[in-house]
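Appendix B. One record, verbatim.
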Amino acid sequence: MRIENYWADVHFFIFNFQFSIFNYNMGNAKAFLTINRKEAGYRPVLERISDFTEVEQTLNMEDRMLQASRCMECGVAFCHWSCPLSNLIPEWQDLLYKGKWFEAYRVLNATNNFPEFTGRVCPALCEKSCVLNMQHQPLTIRENEAAITEHAFLEGFIKAYPPKTRTGKKVAIVGSGPAGLAAADMLNRKGHLVTVYEKDEAIGGLLRLGIPDFKLVKGIIDRRLKLLEAEGIIFVTNTEVGKDLPINELLSSFDAVCLTIGAGVPRDLPIEGRNLKGIHFALDFLKQQNRIVAGQTIPASEQISAKGKKVLVIGGGDTGSDCVGTSIRQKAASVTQIEILPQPPVGDNPDTPWPYYPNILKTSSSHEEGVTRRWSLASKRFIGNKGKVTGVEVVRVEWTKDESGRFTMKETGVSEIINADLILLSMGFTQPVHEGLLDDLGVKYDARGNVEALKPNESSVAKVFVAGDVTTGASLVVRALDSGRKAAEAIGKYL
């Protein structure tokens, strides 16, 4: 007998014994041993780089149900532990495996207002903590989540359910990103009359303007917004609170206000040559392309185009990856992405062991489309000709740990010039915009410049609450949804 088969049978016996004791109704107790992880994958590279439609494909229903059967329904569900929304993952996986799509969606929607968003753009913290990830075969949680929601929409399971009664209380949500929409949805369910204000031309915040359509096509957002409007939520666009709507009028018109304006100040790179033309913040670049895809016309003088240019993306995160994919679709001559941090290890990292989210090399669909990636490079000065950027001087750096275990950076003195006609700064965000609304309200800030929450989701100003990146700093969509739900709970108690 092969030793692998022996231990597989032992594991099978143990799991059967455990679940019989605790009366678990596990659908297929041996599936994780007999069925491998199967991802839907991406559309072919040469096909997808010619458009801005979603790159991710889907599995058929039979394969999707088989993938759900792999869930072990662990006694300690680490996937549930690591999910900011505390999604009941084993429960809806089992329902999906049994073909109970409607019930699976109801369980999923109980903790997640918009699984069609997270099912597309979440980095899936849950999958990284899945017990099966110890063998690099985690459950396809994110893809299953999206599949359940799409099936629910297709079959008409998802409908508008306006509250039967109203409390007479009015709540204003300032900002329409994931935190704002989640807070609005939860408060509306409680019967409060909710109005969402958005300074831009359309609802959605960074879901709408920050994330490229090839990751989240905007019809997905519009579909949900129609339901929220039918349930009674009022959306007001092109309105900057504090400017178009005076603060005094806002505070006098509503019983509570929730600020969900995000962390809108991008981290800059104030080195020599920063004023040269051709250097832009990543979000400005991405927002413009999203508006073009939506049908807007951008004057030629204002266009940020990568067509035929050598593009350099400074910053190695998800936003930088989005800039890579967008530049490739705009027909850039070449795309290079640099990062000041060292290259993460491939596969496993002992510094971030399971079940924690691993700091390992991540290769996105955009990276697969053609980019040169480099690490441990610090930018020293921008170089230009006749007022236009032509490149950047970088120096190689080394990272070491000091006695306390903290990483320290040291320049090696080895420098070079990277040629570039378009440079996109994608180094994250530092804080929310203070000028205007926040300063005029007089809210207190924490040490990092975010709006301080003195109590859970309560600002220092009476009846003004906070949720999402405006108080936590730049983070994930799934964390913003969780923060919005918690803010709604705090507002409900206050009212």
